[in-house]
Amino acid sequence: MAQAGRLGRMRLPWQNVLCVCVCAVRVHLLSACKSGCESDPLGDGFVKRVGSELVDEGDKKFRFASINAPNLHRVEVEPKPAECSLRKCSVEEWVRAPSEYEIRDTLCSIRQMGASVTRIYTFSYGDGPGFHVNRDGVLNEAWFRVFDQMLAIARDVGVRLIVPLINTNWIEGWGSVYEYGDWANEAGYSFFRSQSQRAMFKATIELILNRNNSLTGRRYADDSSILAWELGNELTDDEFHGFPVPVEWTRDVARHIRKFDRNHLLMDGGFFSTQVLAVTEIDIVGSGWRIMPNRI
Ligand SMILES: *[C@@H]1O[C@H](CO)[C@@H](O)[C@H](O)[C@H]1NC(C)=O
């Protein structure tokens, strides 16, 4: 601080030059922001895994560092309306679809940071019009149209997406693996052990992969704007993140996706477990880091 103050008083001549440079950059950024950002469409090629590396469609090494964009396809209104603490609001009262501007603006910001990938949050699961996947695994057309739009804009801006399929923890407004227990009439946290819930989830996955985008006509499984399907968000075999998902489940669901989709990378979606390294269908092993009472 003290040093900066001294420099300020001295008014070195080069400071004026620096200031002009910064202004020039600012003007450039502002004009880019005004028009959203330049369209820089993705090609039709996919990022592949070769050994332990990712390569793009031109066989060049593909690496990225980026941030999440959890609300890119579904916006939670924050703060939740005050009356929701007095009575239970329906999810439609505080969750809404993002506008085209919001989607483009977020993706452009990510692009302007120099990133080529972002990760969104999961599809939402629950009964009623507020969710992507409704009772018994039926897709909600209105929410998937918003998803169609997000994919089309991501393609145009040139950002690829990591899409986690389902959440472990039940979060109000998003639903989770618990919904399948409900729909299958099975109690407790039984998702990874129940064959009927697994069959229902696989049927949902099949519908998602085979969906044709209403704007671009592309089948989701053939859309290069998706970098990877992540089997879920923070998947664990218990609701307290104590035990990894049974590796047999991961292998089985990954093979199921491969039946319909030979294009996209597959990411496991668990906290790090060494067992998953043996699943050859999985291309990216994720790791969740967070401070919790019983682990870090
Ligand atoms: C998607 O489009 C293809 C080609 O037009 C068509 O054969 C297929 O049935 C469509 N799929 C769905 C789920 O509508």
From TrEMBL:
Gene3D superfamilies: Glycosidases. Residues 181-269 form the Glycoside hydrolase family domain. It is found in: Secreted. Its EC number is 3.2.1.78. Residues 1-32 form the signal peptide. This is mannan endo-1,4-beta-mannosidase. The lineage of its organism: Eukaryota, Sar, Alveolata, Dinophyceae, Prorocentrales. It comes from Prorocentrum cordatum. It is an enzyme of class 3 (hydrolase). It comes from the Eukaryota. Belongs to the glycosyl hydrolase 5 (cellulase A) family. Pfam families: GH5_mannosidase. It catalyses: Random hydrolysis of (1->4)-beta-D-mannosidic linkages in mannans, galactomannans and glucomannans. Keywords: Glycosidase, Hydrolase, Secreted, Signal.
